[in-house]
Amino acid sequence: QMTSATKVYYSQTTQTDSRPLIGSGLRRRRVMTKDGRSNVRMEHIADKRFLYLKDLWTTFIDMQWRYKLVLFSATFAGTWFAFGVVWYLVAVVHGDLLEFEPPANHTPCVMQVHTLTGAFLFSLESQTTIGYGFRYISEECPLAIVLLITQLVLTTIMEIFITGTFLAKIARPKKRAETIKFSQNAVVAQHNGKTCLMIRVANMRKSLLIGCQVTGKLLQTHLTKEGESVRLNQVNVDFQVDTSSDSPFLILPLTFYHVVDDA
Fold it and tell me: Which regions form coiled coils (predicted)?
């Protein structure tokens, strides 16, 4: 059975609790997938969902497109309906509904809003600024004027936030990174008389990359002098290329290598 300490590191692709990401066994799960995604799920963290809500901007940017579209579509429809209910209550308070039998000289707050459906349509027309037809606000009711201003201000802020998250997600360099391809297999061979770990890197786009560097991390279990076992001890793995510059010109596929020695 997995201990609580082991459960903190857990593979997202594991189907049962019997295969921890870090633990005993001949074959262990990958910490990172080959396309660069983390394969670790953090567990036993108090108020984990609250932490995501404290940073809504990053949460919405990291959200998958299908969830983002559903959430924002529901947000728009929800605000239309919510303000539609408020407009309907204004009509009720002001006595604009037909069942109240208003007098002939009665001027309603919003013309031709006698039902909840009509109030919803007026809310939609106001928020989307598509232009009023025979439903429009009158000068009779200051409360309606204040409500209209409040709706436009709040929904404009909401639309700015939603538009910003869409643009920020589209402009992220994540897709550009997917056009940097690494060789599927790493090779250990002799290079300049030394045993080296070699990989090949290629830029798939026409746009050039400046200041290219390749670094690696070796994750291994390490036993300290005090007898403490560090499950994910990280060791830097430096890669270099046969060039006079530390920043190679990645116009062609290049082979980066790391000298395998006692260090």
Answer: none
